[in-house]
Specification:
The structure is a single chain. This protein has helices spanning 11-27, 135-139; strands at residues 34-37, 42-48, 54-58, 66-74, 85-92, 97-107, 118-127. The chain has a domain at 28-139: Immunoglobulin-like, CATH 2.60.40.2020. The protein contains two helices and seven strands. Helix content is 13%, strand content 32%. The strands form two sheets. Strands 1-7-6-3 form a four-stranded mixed beta sheet, with no helix packed on it. Strands 2-5-4 form a three-stranded antiparallel beta sheet, with no helix packed on it. It is α+β, with helices and mostly antiparallel strands.
């Protein structure tokens, strides 16, 4: 074999992949769009016009977040019928974590086969409610006592066999 050219291995593939990595980093926001506390409503405000029959709904409907209430607020000073405004959704999340809230702007009487007029994806970061322990603290707390009689590894006595183990060196 002859000497390696600079295009084989190493730096060249990385230089080709660098623009893709930069693009991918921009697609996944480091900061969430909204923040809130577990079991407390988070307000989501989206442009809407209810006189057209369209409204924002969860899409798909089975998500971690649940809509508690929705209201409509017209633009200040615009009193015309059919004028656009804001739909305000109160969404609650049952636990802390990072969620992807998917919403679709659709007419609710139309079948699901009709595509929505618009969609949006919001990243929501939910902190534990004040005074409550985080999910990890609840799962791995020190005061957790299993209800089983099976001994846990940290409770078992170390066992010695009396046999010696010989390690062989490779030749």
């Amino acid at each position: 074999m002859g000497p390696r050219s600079p295009r084989q291995g190493g730096v060249f593939p990385f230089l080709l992949a660098f623009p893709v990595l930069v693009w991918a980093a921009g697609c996944f926001p480091a900061r969430p769009d909204l923040e809130g506390k577990a079991e407390h409503p988070v307000e989501v405000r989206l442009p809407a016009n209810p006189s057209t029959g369209y409204r924002w709904t969860l899409d798909p409907p089975l998500q971690s977040g649940r809509i508690l209430s929705e209201t409509y607020e017209g633009n200040a000073g615009d009193l015309r019928v059919g004028a656009p405004g804001m739909q305000i959704l109160q969404v609650v999340f049952p636990r802390e974590g990072r969620f992807n809230l998917k919403l679709a702007y659709r007419r609710i009487w139309e079948p699901a086969s009709v595509p929505p007029a618009q969609t949006t994806n919001l990243v929501v970061k939910i902190q534990p409610a004040k005074g409550s322990r985080t999910l990890m603290e609840r799962l791995f707390s020190r005061d957790f006592a299993p209800e089983s009689n099976i001994p846990q590894p940290e409770e078992e006595e170390p066992q010695t066999t009396g046999r010696r183990v010989e390690l062989r060196k490779p030749r």
